[in-house]
Write a structure and sequence with these properties.
The complex is a heterodimer of chains A (about 300) and B (about 290).
Chain A: H1 3-12, H2 18-61, H3 67-71, H4 84-116, H5 120-133, H6 137-149, H7 156-181, H8 184-192, H9 197-225, H10 229-232, H11 252-260, H12 265-293
Helix pairs in contact in A: 2-12, 4-5, 4-7, 4-9, 4-11, 5-7, 6-7, 7-9, 8-9, 9-12, 11-12
Chain B: H1 2-25, H2 28-31, E1 35-36, E2 41-42, H3 45-76, H4 79-94, H5 97-124, H6 130-133, H7 143-166, H8 171-179, H9 184-213, H10 216-221, H11 239-246, H12 255-286
Antiparallel strand pairs in B: 1-2
Classes of the chains: A mainly alpha (about 300), B mainly alpha (about 290).
Chain lengths: ~300, ~290
């Protein structure tokens, strides 16, 4: 029974036979109810997945949480090791990724919003940036491997660069969106006062868009903090304490990857602790970013 | 400008890296099912097959779910819970993929092995066709489980896109449909979906692009064996999982490494096409 036909039957002509009208109405109500129930079920299922993930992390990770995790470096299985070097490594590489990616992203976003307009080049850049936004992260790892690692060896800086490639499109998108929200009258006012265009952008637009761009950067940080695939081929992971940027560097996702698949119980336990830390870090960043953005909407 | 160069550089670097392989095997690289590091014979057919099968299966599971969520969030949910639930779904998208991998490996896989797979195999035993499709050892890992986890990962993306495009439908359209006595479901089917069809497809393609390149979660649960199995509980691999696993064992400059890079190139081409289509479809509505 098509929706349109039944609408016409009910709304257009009064049905001659009340029995038919009743049946029709009953059927329509029933299909409406079925659809409603199914949709609620779908939402519940998705929420159940989230709950299951968080519950599992808490159940298996919380028990292993102790001071040793934060003060001791990774050790061979059974050696009562911690996660100090993966945590620090993650922080360093995320910092590099953000520090390199953010300025580039903001510049590109500014170009798109303020200078490019609807030009062909602008559209091409916008399109490519959108594609990069959802490009498989493992390819970015391969790319950095080809560019920096091949022949030169794995290094923490290569890991950071790979992450920065992920940061750029995210920051581009939010920067452009936020700058577009700024009323033209603000810009015109600045220009009318004799400010050159760059001054109007830097002093007026950036200030007004600051909240939004910060949100974008936070989301980007949250995204790269949990990335594993691009780091596999760039920073490789390191079981020893090392802060040298030109040497292989450990990171939380890589440690989780290595430990989760291992047969040693205490390694698996550490993997869960790492997973707990990283997930709650990432989720907290997301919540903060979203709450910060909210009043703007 | 920089971004354009970046994309170009990615393509070129993968192509250059994969060139020895493409030259050595030619077109046979794409069609061959061999992957034998000892003999130095490499073919891409198995991972390509695995990539496409898992992604499509994942979408088959994810799309109805995502549609239900988007419908619920736009039309049904009381305003009070709309925001918290929407945020929760978005958080599902924020969970790092390696966490999905662990969760899949330690929670979903045992569950599948213990309850779901034996049950399905028993139930379908004797049914032609389906019996073969759902055959295989009930280890819990395999293509079906990988697709299931991919589905969970893709749902929030597709649902968020659908919700956004559903909200672009002018309220007047919906109100006039309600005005002639439509039920909520009829408004959805006859007004909202026709109005947003191309964007909905775009959102689904976006999800497909995500699923194609997903690495860590799949690596954990797919079983990682290089063969094409006709049944869904059998193990397999995908481009991304194969690259992630074998990379550490490949020497720089070897033919194997080059093959992995060539695989990366194939993955890039596939996902670029999918994402490009999705962007074009999504743009239509915005413009």
């Amino acid at each position: 029974m098509s929706g349109v036909a039944s609408i016409a039957a009910v709304a257009g002509q009064p049905a001659r036979d009340p029995g038919v009208a009743n049946r029709l109405s009953r059927n329509r109500k029933r299909s409406n109810r079925v659809a409603t129930v199914l949709c609620i079920a779908a939402t519940v299922v998705a929420l159940a997945f989230l709950a299951s993930i968080i519950f599992t992390l808490l159940r298996l990770g919380f028990g292993g949480l102790s001071l040793t995790v934060f003060t001791s470096v990774t050790k061979p299985a059974g050696g009562n090791g911690g996660l100090l070097n993966p945590i620090v490594g993650s922080l360093i590489q995320t910092a590099i990724g953000t520090a390199v990616g953010t300025p580039i992203g903001i510049l590109v976003g500014t170009y798109l919003s303020e200078y490019a307009g609807k030009s062909i080049l602008g559209n091409a850049v916008r399109f490519v940036s959108d594609v990069l936004l959802s490009a498989p992260s493992i390819l970015i790892g391969l790319f950095i491997y080809e560019l920096f690692v091949n022949g030169r060896g794995y290094s923490g800086i290569a890991g950071g660069l790979a992450l920065s490639v992920i940061v750029i499109p995210i920051v581009v998108r939010t920067t452009e969106d936020m700058l577009k929200l700024i009323p033209t009258s603000l810009r015109e006012a600045a220009v009318a006062l004799g400010a050159p265009k760059w001054k109007a952008i830097v002093l007026i637009c950036y200030r007004a868009a600051l909240d939004g761009i910060t949100t974008g950067v936070l989301l980007a940080v949250a995204r790269i903090a949990g990335e594993t695939a691009p780091l596999l081929f760039t920073s490789l992971g390191n079981d020893n304490w090392s802060l040298a940027l030109d040497k292989p560097m450990s990171s939380l996702p890589l440690a989780i990857y290595k430990y989760a698949g291992s047969p040693a119980d205490d390694w698996v336990q550490l993997a869960w602790v790492g997973a707990l830390l990283i997930t709650f870090g990432v989720l907290a960043l997301n919540v903060v970013a979203r709450v910060a953005l909210r009043p703007r909407r | 400008m920089f971004v354009l160069i970046l994309l170009g550089a990615i393509i070129i670097s993968l192509l250059v890296g994969g060139w020895p392989t493409l030259r050595a095997f030619g077109l046979a690289f794409v069609t061959s099912t061999d992957w034998d590091p000892v003999q130095e014979v490499f073919g891409a057919a198995v991972p390509v097959y695995g990539t496409i099968v898992t992604s499509v299966l994942a979408l088959l599971m994810a799309v109805p779910l995502a549609f239900g969520i988007a419908f619920y969030l736009t039309e049904l949910a009381p305003p009070l819970v709309r925001r918290p639930i929407g945020t929760a779904i978005e958080l599902l998208a924020a969970v790092p993929s390696i966490i999905y991998g662990m969760w899949g490996f330690f929670v979903v896989v045992p569950f599948m092995a213990e309850y779901v797979q034996p049950h399905i195999i028993d139930t379908l035993d004797g049914t032609p066709l389906l019996q073969d499709l759902f055959a295989g050892p009930p280890f819990g890992t395999g293509i079906f489980t990988a697709a299931l986890i991919l589905a969970v990962m893709v749902v929030p993306f597709v649902a968020a896109t659908m919700r956004d495009v559903f909200q672009t439908v002018p309220a007047v359209y919906k109100e006039s449909a309600y005005g002639v006595g439509c039920t909520t479901w009829e408004v959805m089917r006859s007004v909202v979906i026709p109005y947003t069809r191309s964007s909905v497809v775009g959102g689904i393609m976006l999800g497909l692009g995500r699923a194609l390149g997903e690495t860590m979660a799949v690596t954990f649960v797919i079983g990682n064996s290089n063969r094409i199995s006709g049944n869904l509980f059998g193990s397999g691999n995908t481009i991304a999982s194969l690259v992630a696993l074998e990379f550490g064992e490949s020497e720089a400059g070897s033919l194997k490494l080059s093959s992995l890079l060539a695989l990366g190139f194939i993955l890039f081409v596939i996902s670029f096409i999918v994402l490009a289509i999705s962007r074009l479809l999504l743009r239509e509505v915005k413009a």
